[in-house]
Write a structure and sequence with these properties.
183 residues, five-stranded antiparallel sheet, single chain, alpha+beta
Amino acid sequence: MKRVLGWVCGVVLALVTALWCGMATADLALSAGVYGTPGTYKVERCYDTDSSGRNSRYDCHGDFTPDGGTADDAEYVPLGDTGRDYPDGTEFDARQGNDPDTIQRVGFWGVVGELWQVAVCVTVLAILGYQAIKPRGRDARREAHRREPSPRQKAADRVGYAVLVAVPVGILSWIAMIAEPTS
């Protein structure tokens, strides 16, 4: 029963993580300029959504103007929960996704802001994959006495290497995002 429950929880976690990874990868592609309408986003105002003031989360609103457009072409788009307080009037390059309400900052800081999420997803999926593939029980005991790892152990090790790449990428991306200049 314990093993079945572990597999069920693992599958549910993998599905949720894969969904998050897909959304984060789409946002990363939008920030990298792979698709979407290029333009400029001008922050009208940001306000703190946490009334206690201890865990500030900022909700920002403003106008998106497509490249080559005029002030008449600007459309109001909520930026949503940004995690940072942009000063009123701040402008930055952005891309509007297929959904008109989807706006992502482009360039280095936009990519960095999305990259950590993809790295966390890849890490979680790689750990789950490693746990599913690696030999267990009697196979693991046999594995301990072999000179050469089994094909199953080699495959698990290769999946595990993704963790060695994704964790530092995620940490460095997160540090860069925290260190982003505010002006």
